[in-house]
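As promised in the previous annual report, we have extended the structural survey to additional targets. Below is the entry for 2-hydroxyacyl-CoA lyase.
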Amino acid sequence: MAGSEANISNPNNSTNLIDGSFLASKSLAKFGVDHMFGVVGIPVTSLASCAVSLGIRFIAFHNEQSAGYAASAYGYLTGRPGVLLTVSGPGCVHGLAGLSNAMANAWPMILISGSCDQKDFGRGDFQELDQIAAVKPFCKFSVKAKDVREIPTCVAQVLDLAISGRPGGCYLDIPSDVLHQTVPKSEAEQLLLLADKFRKGEEITSFPIDKIQEAVSLLRHSERPLIVCGKGAAYARAEGALKKLVESTGIPFLPTPMGKGLLPDNHELAATAARSLAIGKCDVALVVGARLNWLLHFGEPPKWSKDVKFILVDVSKEEIELRKPYLGLVGDAKRVLELINREIKDDPFCLGKSHPWKEAISYKAKENVSKMEAQLARDIVPFNFLTPMRIIRDAILAFSSPAPILVSEGANTMDVGRAVLIQTEPRTRLDAGTWGTMGVGLGYCIAAAVACPGRLVVAVEGDSGFGFSAMEVETLVRYQLPVVVIIFNNGGVYGGDRRSAEEIDGPYKHDPAPTSFVPSAGYHILIEAFGGKGYLVGTPEELKSAISESFLAQKPAVINVTIDPYAGAESGRMQHKN
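The corresponding structure token record, generated without further manual editing, is:
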């Protein structure tokens, strides 16, 4: 939705005035923003240019949706709001994809959009839209700066509220006329100081010790305790406290998909490979930074025991009230776990290695892993999903520290990857998340590369998932980001044309199936058009060679992996069968 913008303001001119674009950029820089994502055009090009001049790195995308997904993931990875900048009207609407994704996943993000002149609103102005009304269902707070002097306070508000309580998305609307209004530099400095003075600090609340004691008592007297950890615990940097709790008590743990890596997936107390047994038989479940939503079967039978007692740790009081656990602990995951550890320290307990519960989970996990490894050991050509996934897994595990960040997107590709790929460090897995969002892949890759410099980023994508944001491979090349995109190309959604003869009928029966793409599409050639490296592979040797070369180079690359179109199956909600 970008357009050209003339007369870009020069903040270094000889006058003592600065405009709204510069003041907005100055506010963002002063309040800690160092990266922005977006697509520029009327009326925000000057704002982006000013931001760059003030030391903010602006990552320019082709599409606001991908930029928004990048901003949302950046918030998760850094713990600071990711910022998306868009033009007015349709640019703002496109940005709602990222804003709503941030809300669904409880990640801090800011959407800043320009809007039409206030005096022309309601008259059919260029890209006119009531953007405050449009964003309302998708964010926790929205505000419009109606005058240039309101900008610093508005910027401070959205940045603070995005991370307070349950993190989420906030929206700032800056009309075109406000961006062009001017204010004396001396007054601008006073406005910035005043906004900073009244910013919300971190809220430190006292925690009722009796509830901590009750949680410890439940765990201590449980016969089959389980600790479930989610991406909320990863966001809270709770891995140290979680490790101490798990290893001091000997309680098995089960990560949600994006909780993987809080403790290594191959940890001896990991229950991932015995998931059905763990959740079906546990009698007390300490759930930390994870919601009892569809990903955890709502905490209900038949997946869970009807008698299980949930101890739910969540930063949101409303979430606790919604789920009605046996015991709710409202607070930051890291802090609550530290308090639990402190309480246990005075009277420690630990499940021994021969404890029946630990033995049952260990036995089942080893049994399931053995079955999976037997399938993975075979080299199947044409490729199924397992053979290339094993090769990718082994290459990632062999990579030197720090571990690569994995971005996983697709149907079969993501489902198989979740079971096969191993996370050993926290916040190294990004996937479709709470909302099951497709199209996040390249945006997440770019966010990970800029948020975590020094790490290789590896995307394992289905061809359908890749297609949502494929043009952003040019963005990878333009910024020379260390991202390797591995595409499982099976010719369409779930595997191309899978219709039975009876389904092929009607006046358009000769059209391609709704699930099919062009067979043997040359996705690797796309990145080569922009100067990146592309690989086409169809055998284990070719895939190993491409991975070795691209991982070593740590430059933008696409590996196009040809998959048997009949290897996959229709995939909806994630099914856990182990």
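The two ends are 46 Å apart (CA to CA). The chain is about 40% helix and 15% strand. These points will be discussed at the next consortium meeting with the crystallography subgroup.
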